[in-house]
Write a structure and sequence with these properties.
The longest helix has 32 residues. The chain has a four-stranded mixed sheet. The protein is mainly α. Helix 21 crosses helix 25. The chain is 57% helix and 3% strand. It contains 27 helices and four strands. The protein is globular and about 65 Å long.
């Protein structure tokens, strides 16, 4: 099973957002119509700029020793976000199940956040004691700097563990865990036994989730009834007996990949799997639904984090952890988003003024290719000019099971185990991904997006510690950057249509990012969101407004991580173009970003400055 990156606490196994790189879920709304000038100028309040700050930490022992300890010690690392999943290396699953790797945070969900809290207090002794100047190796110094930033961000969440929200309609554990179970790869018999053991433990795990949600409710942080109803609807999709479950179907196909299994052994394993589904998996969802029903009326906040006692503080932590932004605070980030949104609107208006027929052609313009594999091969060929080469890889394109289409992302890429780079999978949700968006979606998930970036990083990276760290702002920012790049390729769109669609898509995503800040940091309620969307974008449908509002409420900083990552990359690209002029190379800029790899932008920015100086001097 591929590896995951998620900051939510988990007890049985890691939650789906870690190994899934989901294509964001948002309503398809076009905002290409030019706004009246008075509206455009009043659209956002520009806040004063502030200085960027970077936190740093001095290690206390050699990084090479730290790396070996984190990857090999039997006692768990105190880094709570280093959640060990069973297949960062494919051997890890059997180690967990046979007791060769002790993971006490897999026992109870309640115990997880308590361990996280204790972990933060023991971080100091784990930081290696030596001066930065000792690190002569560029890669070691980079890893050290990234780790310093990562730990300092983690420490800023101390005392806020109950603000974590493991359940949500689309990105919650209950929605994504079954897909991960269906991707659990069997390499040998022991893996089958491990899988069945995990599947049989899911009811106990979900009991711990309800215990955690109960504790959150008792602390005044419980889910509101609307969100609970949405989550319950997603749970209902899994109340299917084993004879009709996609888990039974995928289990049978995975058995066939094991050499040496007799027909009788396969039949016995299928019977055990059926029993685990009927006696543990389905009851787990039934108990989760019952537990959530019992929590109705206990969560009184149906708005954003702003309305919780320390909600703004937790949101500030989430913004730093999810986006890795180089901006000093949330107001500074909001100002940058406002500024770029104005640029996107200006570009859209200019394109429509230059060619008014573009607006009429918007609904009839289509991409030439409509099959996912054809699109990936086309993207791979066209990207060679602007992106450095990677070794060829195998990949499988799969479709989301029909019963789950309403509760999973439009598309997602499953990251490969570091010792199984050939196990690439991209899922397409046929309900929410159509021919109008498939081309750019495959760019986001495949080439030159997540799959390409993962392949490149795995080929260049020499420190496995970095495979454990998660930087959603970088990875989703890169995916969005790749998605918007694809609009302007030779893809069948008429001249300037790609640019119009790119600016429109960027503006729409920026709108969601801005709403994220307004709801969670400034306290907007659903009426204010409705008034805003109605005044400026003529959106009046209450169901659409409610859907947008609760998608943002359930997943704070999620849309923000996509857009902020893209904005950081776009800003660096524009700065490089300005400073390097005719000597700017998109290929070399992309190579720089890829060579750095996933990291906070506060770290990347320092290296970017050095890269600019070096390239300016060399020219």
């Amino acid at each position: 099973m591929p590896s995951l990156h998620w900051y939510y606490p988990c007890a049985l196994l890691p939650a789906a957002h870690f190994f899934q790189t989901p294509h964001r879920k948002q309503k398809k709304i076009r905002f290409w119509r030019p706004l009246q000038k008075p509206q455009a100028t009043a659209l956002w309040k520009i806040l004063p700029p502030s200085q960027t700050k970077q936190l740093f930490w001095r290690p206390k022992k050699p990084l090479t020793s730290l790396r070996k300890t984190c990857l090999s010690r039997k006692q768990p690392s105190p880094f709570s976000l280093f959640t060990i999943h069973w297949q960062t290396l494919k051997a890890t699953a059997s180690q967990i199940m046979t007791g060769h790797l002790e993971l006490p945070w897999l026992k109870t969900h309640k115990g997880t956040w308590k361990m996280q809290n204790r972990s933060k207090q023991t971080l100091m002794p784990w930081i290696p004691p030596f001066s930065v100047v000792v690190l002569g190796n560029f890669r070691q110094l980079l890893t050290y700097t990234i780790l310093s930033s990562y730990i300092n961000t983690l420490l800023s969440s101390d005392g806020l563990e109950l603000y974590d929200q493991p359940l949500s309609t689309t990105l919650g554990i209950q929605s994504q865990l079954p897909i991960l179970l269906s991707e659990y790869t069997f390499y040998k018999k022991q893996d089958i036994d491990d899988y069945l053991s995990l599947l049989s433990s899911i009811d106990t795990y979900y009991d711990s989730l309800i215990a955690f949600e109960t504790q959150r409710a008792q602390a005044g942080l419980g889910l509101c009834d609307t969100v609970i109803d949405n989550i319950i609807r997603s749970c209902n999709a899994y109340l299917i007996d084993a004879d009709h479950s996609f888990l039974a179907e995928t289990f049978a196909s995975r058995l066939n990949e094991i050499d040496g299994l007799s027909d009788q052994e396969k039949a016995d394993y299928k019977a055990k799997n059926k029993k685990a589904i009927d006696e543990h998996f389905v009851p787990a969802y039934e108990r989760l639904i019952t537990g959530l029903e019992g929590l109705k009326g206990k969560g009184t906040n149906d708005k954003g984090l702003y309305y919780y006692p320390e909600g703004r503080k937790y949101y500030e932590y989430l913004v730093n952890a999810s986006t890795g932004t180089s901006y000093s605070d949330v107001p500074a980030l909001k100002q940058a988003i406002n500024k770029q949104m104005t640029k996107e609107l200006t570009a859209v208006n200019q394109l429509l003024n230059d060619d008014p027929s573009l607006g009429d052609k918007l609904d009839t313009s289509t991409f030439t290719l409509t099959k996912p594999q054809d699109i990936l091969e086309d993207l791979k060929a066209q990207c060679q000019t602007d992106f450095p080469p990677v070794n060829d890889c195998n990949y499988t394109i799969k479709t989301v099971p029909k019963t789950l289409e309403g509760f999973l992302s439009p598309a997602f890429y499953l990251k490969v185990p570091i010792d199984r780079p050939e196990d690439n999978s991209i899922y397409i949700n046929n309900k929410s991904t159509d021919s109008d968006s498939l081309y750019t979606t495959m760019a986001h998930e495949g080439y030159p997006g997540h799959m390409y970036q993962t392949l490149y990083f795995n080929q260049k990276n020499t420190c496995n510690l970095r495979n454990v760290l998660d930087f959603q702002g970088y990875t989703e920012g890169w995916g969005t950057y790749a998605e918007y790049y694809a609009f302007n390729l030779n893809n069948g769109l008429e001249e300037n249509m790609g640019q119009l669609l790119q600016h429109n898509s960027a503006f729409t995503l920026a709108l969601y990012a801005l709403l994220d800040i307004n709801i969670h940091y400034e306290g907007w309620n659903i009426d204010q969101v409705g008034e805003y969307l109605n005044m400026y974008f003529q959106l009046e449908d209450p169901s659409v407004i409610s859907s947008i509002y609760y998608e943002v409420v359930e997943n704070p900083a999620n849309y923000l991580s996509y857009y902020t990552g893209y904005l950081e990359l776009l800003n660096m690209q524009e700065e490089a173009k300005q400073q390097l002029g005719n000597n700017f190379s998109l290929l070399e800029f992309n190579r720089f970003i890829l060579d750095i790899g996933p990291a906070p932008f506060s770290v990347i920015r320092n290296y970017f400055t050095q890269w600019l100086i070096q390239n300016s001097n060399s020219n």
